[in-house]
Amino acid sequence: MRIAIIGFGTAGEGRLHAYRTVAAGRVVAVLDPSPERRARALRLDPGVVTYATLAELLAAQPVDAVDICAPPNRHVELEREALTAGLHVICEKPVAVRTDEALDLINLARERGRLLYPAHNYGFSPMMRVLTGAVTGGRLGGPLRARFQIARDSHARGVPGWQPDWRRDVAVAQGGIMLDHGTHCAYMATQLFGEAPRTVSCLAQWADGDAASGMDLAARLNLEFNGGGTCEIDLSWVSGTRSNRYLLSGPGGTADVHDGVAEVRTAHGVERTDLAPPSRDQTHQEWFGGMFADFAGLVAAGTGWDRPMREVVTTTALIEAAYRSAGRGGEPVVPAGFSAAQAR
């Protein structure tokens, strides 16, 4: 499969390296408006062709899919352009910020017969394999209770030469930590609980104490599921430390993944596994192989596309509901895309 990477910042560069580990995809082009970043791509891989825009690429050479690694404010417009041109699309999170945009993109993908696939790489991580195994194996029972804690001493920085602190610019990032790390937690929770949450409530800490800034630096979300389960998500860019913890509990036991250690406790005993902790490389290249294999397999089969495209909608709706709740002082909100996503 011939791939063009769109956006050659930290994520795009990480993706170029990651594609070297897979057999089903080959990067043939890199797109970035910055001459400096295009030159960087050529230094790393002289075999790619570089372009400033998608229009230039489409006029010059054929590709099968694009991998969008541009900043969030460009995602929807680039997805629309690529899908309209008949290309399959992988897109970094967030695929969309508003649920209506997500639904429009899914409709366009279906009309064009192309796959819109979210780059939800945490779904292919060692920690997620432990958590999923504990749930699907029935060892924890139900209803489940979950608590995710993501602590950072700052936001992740971008590449020099193009606004390294773009994550703190809401015009570019479209939001703060909820849209960034929160997106990962949202799709992980939806996958583990097997459904979208019934309600979402959220309290947030805003830059300069001003909710109107739209830049959340810390947040606590509470998800309530129809099956009786709950998930609490604590996020912070101002914690003074760096840590990840994912804790699931049920009547039958617990599954606890804390940085590089996983521990599953049930009536049958304790299973402890040392995992490679999430790397400081924010692109997590080591998880890419499984994700791309899933994408390429779906494209080849031509079926099963509803799963990732439904996840686009449920994830967008969950985070949109969290922002709406935070703006209302923590009032529970029903995600706008819940019914639509379940029906599709």
Low-pLDDT runs of 5+ residues are: 338-344
Query: Tell me about the biggest sheet?
Result: 8 strands, mixed
- Give the DSSP E fraction (strand runs of 2 or more residues): 15-25%
Strand arrangement, major sheet: 8-9-10-7-11-12-13-14
Number of domains: 2
The proportion of residues forming helix, as a percent range, comes to 25-40%
Terminal residue distance = 28 Å
Short description:
Residues 1-119 form the Gfo/Idh/MocA-like oxidoreductase N-terminal domain. With 344 residues, this protein is α/β, with parallel strands linked by helices.
Keywords:
2 domains, alpha/beta, disordered C terminus, Rossmann fold, Dihydrodipicolinate Reductase, domain 2, 344 residues, single chain, 6-stranded parallel beta sheet
Description:
There is one protein chain. By secondary structure, this protein is α/β, with parallel strands linked by helices. It has two domains: 2-121, NAD(P)-binding Rossmann-like Domain (Rossmann fold, 3-Layer(aba) Sandwich), CATH 3.40.50.720; 126-343, Dihydrodipicolinate Reductase, domain 2 (2-Layer Sandwich), CATH 3.30.360.10. It has eleven helices and 14 strands. The strands form two sheets. An eight-stranded mixed sheet has the order 8-9-10-7-11-12-13-14, with helices on one face. Helix 4 (75-84) runs parallel beside helix 5, helix 6 runs parallel beside helix 8 and helix 8 (177-193) crosses helix 10 (306-327). The longest helix is centred in the C-terminal third of the chain and has 22 residues, at 306-327. The chain is globular and about 60 Å long. Residues 1-119 form the Gfo/Idh/MocA-like oxidoreductase N-terminal domain. InterPro entries: Gfo/Idh/MocA-like_OxRdtase_N, Gfo/Idh/MocA_oxidoreduct, GFO_IDH_MocA-like_dom, NAD(P)-bd_dom_sf. One of its GO terms (molecular function) is nucleotide binding.
